[in-house]
Structure formats: C-alpha cells, structure tokens
Amino acid sequence: MDLNTKTIWITGASSGIGEAVAMQYAALGYNLILSARRQNELERVANACQTLGGKCFILPLDLANLENPETLVQRALAFTGKIDILVNNGGITQRSLAAETSTEVVRKIMEVNFFGQVTLSSALVPHFIKAGGGQFAVLSSLTGIFGYGLRSTYAASKHALHGYFESLAIENFKHNIHVTMVCPGRILTNISLNAVNGDGSNYGKLDEGQKNGVDAVTCAKKII
Q1: Whole-model pTM?
Q2: Would you call 190 helix, strand, or coil by DSSP?
C-alpha cells in the first residue's frame, strides 16, 4: 500500500453525504475507513468504492455509544498506519416543536451529533500531534449558524460543534491540525426520512426542501 496516499475516515458513510464523499474520494484513489451503524450498508458502499479504485476498511460504530474510542482509533490506524482526515459526518435530525420534544430525544440528538463527534475526534488528536498534523472536516449545517423551526436541538447540536471545533483548531494550530466546518443548505438525502419526532418516533417523510435540494454528489465535490 502506498503510504503517500491519504487515508480518510468517514462517519455516517453508509448513506447520503457520507456515502457520496466516500465515492468521490475513492475515485481519486484514496484509502477509506468507512464507519456507521449498519454493516451491510457499509459493505455495499465499500464494494462500490473499491470498484472506483479506492481501498476500504469497514469499521462499524454507533456515535450514540462510543465506550472505547481509543480502541476504535487503534483499529482505524491498523488499516494503513495513519489517518490524514476525519470526516465527522454522522448525525440525526428532528421534526418537532421545542416545547413538544422529550428530554430523551434532546439527549439522543446531542449524544449523536455532538458528544459522539467530540469523543471520537478528541481520541484522534494525540495521533495527529504525533504524525505532525491532520484535519477534521465537520459536517454542520446552515442551522449551525442560525436557528430554524422544528429543529431546536438539531440546531443546538450544530452550534455546539462550531464552538468546540473552532476552539480545538485554535489550540492545535501549532501542531498543524486544521478544522473545516462544512455548512450545507438543503441536500437531497434521506435525512428527513430518518428524522425523529418529539416523542422519539420516526418522522418518515421526505421534506419538500430535501426533494428540491442539491444532489449529494455535487455537495460531496464541494466538500472535497
């Protein structure tokens, strides 16, 4: 394996923007570590990426339950011996009024969108320092810049990512560790189909905004 080829670790790689980013990197010949909960979907994406010329390692994880992040990092490093970029893409959203969203749902969204990303990233920082640098790409949203109706906790989780990762970038600039905050508008993915209602049930609808959004491939190209 060519050690000069960059290794990219992508969370939420089983669908949507994460899958599209993986496919674009694969076409460029990058080494890919693909993470999400659904192993069967990761295998599907990995097969497609390998057809395009990328080398893939599947590393299933649940951002809501990262008990041993250091172990995950070591398993990821075992693929090529390095990680150049972590694309923090995994996440969930909601479709519910703030006053009608249960505390359990609030905690679940924050666990996946904020604590999961932070836990995995902070475990990777020591490797980046040792390696002489690295990059975090963090999938936020326009809702990470301003609030939006029916998205209160989702917006809060994305706002929190900005505060954390901008601070992390300042602290680690001397170590050549950089952060890219990615703030897409409406993208044609299944994010609204997989959204949760205030009681935790599945929203299960494709919003008009998503239907008319930018396709995921165009979004992925801009991210890269």
Answers
A1: 0.96
A2: coil
Instruction: Note the pLDDT tens digit of each residue in 90-132.
Output: 999 999 999 999 999 999 999 999 999 999 999 999 999 999 9
**Residues 30 and 108 sit within 8 Å (Cβ to Cβ):** no
> Can 25 be counted among the known catalytic residues?
no
79's tokens: 């693929």
pLDDT digits (tens, 9 = 90+) for 141-171: 999 999 999 999 999 999 999 999 999 999 9
Exactly one of 25, 30, 148, 154 is catalytic; which is it?
154
The stretches of 14-133 forming alpha helices (DSSP H) are 16-27, 39-52, 69-80, 103-110, 116-131
Contacts of 28 (CB under 8 A, 6+ apart): 54, 224
CA distance 118 to 165: 8
